[in-house]
Amino acid sequence: MTEKPLISIKQLNVEFPLGRTLFGKPPMLRAVNDVSLDIMPGQFYGLVGESGSGKTTLGRAILRAVPITSGEISFDNRDANYNVGGLEKKDLNNYRKLAQLIFQDPYAALSPRMTVRDIIAEPLEVMGLTQTREETDERVREIAAKCRLNLEHLRRFPHAFSGGQRQRISIARALVCNPNFVVADESVAALDVSIQADILNLLLSLQNQLGLTFLFISHDLSVVAHICDHVAVMYLGTLVESAPTRKLFDNPRHPYTKALLSAIPSLDPDDSGKAQKLEGEIPSPVNPPSGCRFHTRCHFAEERCRKEVPEWRKLDKRHSVACHFAEKLASTQ
Amino acid sequence: MTLLTVEDLNLKFDTDEGRITAVENVSFEINAGEVLGLVGESGSGKTVTAKSLMQLNPSNAVYSSGGGIHLDLESGVVEVLSLRSSRELEIVRGGAISMIFQEPMASFAPAITIGNQMVEQLLIHTSLSKRESSELSVEMLERVGIDEAGKRFHQYAFELSGGMRQRAMIAMALSTKPKLLIADEPTTALDVTIQAQVLDLMKDLVSEFGMAILFITHDLGVIAQVADRIAVMYLGGIVESGPVREVLKSPAHPYTRGLINALPKLDSLDEPLTPIPGDIPSPLERPPGCVFHTRCPEVLADRCNSSVPQRTNLGHGHSASCFAMNWEGKAA
Predict the structure, then answer these.
(1) Dist CA A79 CA A63 (whole Å)
(2) pLDDT score for B216
(3) Where does B175-243 have alpha helices with state H?
(4) pTM reported for the whole predicted model
(5) CA-CA distances (angstroms) from residue B55 to A165, A295, B13, B64?
(6) Which chain A residues contact residue B220 at CB under 8 A?
(7) Is there a contact between B275 and A269 if contact means CB atoms under 8 Å apart?
(8) How far is A286 from chain B (nearest CA, A)?
């Protein structure tokens, strides 16, 4: 591929101070640790991991919603090129027109005091993208129709809507300023299964229609498997594996990916027990294990894993993994 | 042996906006040592049904007089809905029935140690002394796989991780040796790897203690792994029930089929997801006739929107309430 990535992240670190101390530096929590990844234009990029793995922080760092400690994030859509970490006021505003966020909880994300029309129009007004009220109304109606909202409902308040409809409103709000890149953070986690499939199909069709690039953050591997074309797996702030979806699910090379896949409860009552169950729980990120961060729960861990941090390396052009024994794991399958 | 029989349970809530039907004509049975999975989306009445078994619904709940909940204990049959005083209710609240909740942080008192909470309920429900209660509690914590149980016994809920709290909750619910455990979305708040651990633990405990479980969840995958039988709820009614293999492999009701098709599956990545069209109706605008007809892809004109389908027996304990399935020869 000669195409240039839309988002390119190099050795990104995000740290948060834990409380304050009178003297010296407070202890730091490293939520994102040395993450490098590329997101191609038009990709539906999935990011999975358990709670506390740093996936939300990574998503927010790309949007500059959390401060970046070190490393580089660059955004390049051919018309404009931004170094996200160093953006100042005006450029940051411009960048935010291009990169948007869809929230998890459609009940908390919408102001109960604003009508649906005002909620969707707010980004346009704040960013000064439209000149007249007529123009704003037109843009709102256009995007609302694309998100399959009933245009007669635009004057209602959010409480009158069900979870699925509310999520369509939040999607319309995120897309109204014509962004290139959208972070969808657990955007279907709060929805019922019958509605969830509808929202996933909507996201896919919007991506096709509008040529969007998505970073889809989720803890649900089967959802990610269905809609993403590339998936990265995070554990305790680091990336452990990244590959095209099918490859990752057919041939996982990191023991954590493998365990995560086998922990999904199967719909077939007779299909159980093959699972390679993980023991223990995810350690605290304040004091992460030495060497490979996964070694405390890994079935294959050896002395080397306790001492040496595995390098983030490419197995082939699009499949990367951070495990000393990735080749060995492949042969055990 | 039938442990619990729910017969024609009807439950409405009096609210400012009128009387809302939460549960309509629900009947099911749970045998001793059996896991019954109750599945449905939010608002389908799963939790309200379960809470009725312990009379835990708020005071604006109105049970209609026709139905009943019978609990068959060694000491005789208990009519749960006619229990009145808090003394009598102790039989179903923590005595013969225990409940574990979705969010373990919200169900432990934050300012009392885990140990004191466990001991308190043992003092109420058993004749054990304080000392024996503490010993039993620590033993139960060990049994559910908590390391350093002696130390955890003296800690508060906030000091434990999510998976650990759910284990402690299970230990607490089981220490009184209930006949029936109600587990309301016990693994929904947990990560998948921890969920797998907790499900394994619950399966082990069923075989060890021989109690029955009413397992409430929206996740069909979880049900497939733990339940013996399954009942699918939609808008307050059971639309289909039967042995878990039968129902999941040959679902008879269009709603059950819709739920299964809407679920992303790992072994068929190329197939598109099929959502169930429309939204779940608000309980204030309950559709007449079959409650599912507004979203049903197999709806029969003039029939489904006017009359209520009766439960049809499909053999092997499998039954469903739908007019359309008869046309497919499904019932035969």
Answers:
(1) 18
(2) 94
(3) 192-209, 220-226
(4) 0.86
(5) 34, 48, 14, 14
(6) 193, 267
(7) no
(8) 14
> Quick one: pLDDT at residue B34?
92
Amino acid B194: pLDDT? 84
B37 exposure class (CB count in 10 Å sphere: 0-12, 13-18, 19+):
buried
Q: Is A267 on the interface with B (CB under 8 A)?
A: yes
Both tokens of B166, joined, read: 């759910």
Q: What is the complex's ipTM, to 2 decimals?
A: 0.80
Tokens 């040796």 correspond to B177
Contacts of A163 in chain B (CB under 8 A): 42
Q: Which residues, numbered 171 to 200 in chain A, qualify as contacts with chain B under a Cβ-Cβ cut-off of 8 Å?
A: 192-198, 200
| pLDDT band (50, 70, 90) for residue A276 | low
Contact at CB, A281 and B244, closer than 8 angstroms: no
Q: Do the chains contact at B192 and A282, CB–CB below 8 Å?
A: no
Give the minimum alpha-carbon distance from A135 to chain B in angstroms, rounded to a whole number: 31
Tokens, residue B280: 């779940």
Domain limits, chain B? 1-96+178-272, 112-176
- A44's CB contacts (< 8 A; 6+ apart) are A204, A207, A213, A214, A216, A227, A228, A229, A230
Cα–Cα distance measured from residue B46 to residue B40, given in angstroms and rounded to the nearest whole number: 7
- B219–A194 CB contact, under 8 Å: no
Question: Is residue A273 predicted with pLDDT exceeding 70?
Answer: no
Q: How far apart are CA A325 and CA A144, in angstroms?
A: 50
Q: B-chain residues within 8 Å CB-CB of A51?
A: 162, 191
Report strand pairing: A213-218 vs A81-83. Answer: unpaired
B89 close to A (CB below 8 A): no
- What would the pLDDT profile of A69-127 be if each residue is shown by its tens digit? 999 999 998 888 899 888 888 889 899 999 999 988 888 889 999 999 999 999 999 88
Task: Answer whether B186 touches A (CB < 8 Å).
Answer: no
CB of A47 closer than 8 Å to CB of A218: yes
Note the pLDDT of residue B328: 47
Q: How confident is the model at residue A43 (pLDDT cuts 50, 70, 90)?
A: very high
Alpha-helix runs per DSSP H in chain B: 46-52, 86-89, 104-107, 114-125, 130-143, 149-152, 162-174, 192-209, 220-226, 244-249, 254-262, 324-327
Chain A residue whose CA is closest to B164: A281
Chain B residue with minimal CA distance to A199?
B275
- Residue spans of chain B under pLDDT 50: 327-332
CB contact under 8 A, A192 and B219: no
Residue B173: DSSP 8-state: H
Task: State the amino acid at position A27 in one-letter form.
Answer: P
Is B317 near chain A, with CB under 8 Å?
Answer: no
Q: pLDDT digit string (tens) for B196-242?
A: 888 888 888 888 888 899 999 988 999 999 999 999 999 999 999 99
Domain ranges for chain A, please list them.
251-333
Closest CA to A34 of A326, A311, A221: A311
Report pLDDT for B331. 42
Judged by a CB distance cut-off of 8 A, whether residue A246 touches chain B is yes
Structure tokens at B213: 């479980």
Q: What is the mean pLDDT of residues A270-293?
A: 79
Q: Could you tell me the sign of the dihedral formed by the alpha carbons of A298, A302, A307, A310, in that order?
A: negative
Beta bridge partners of A181: A99, A213
Q: What percent of chain A has pLDDT over 90?
A: 56
Q: Say which CATH topology domain B1-96+178-272 has.
A: Rossmann fold (3.40.50)
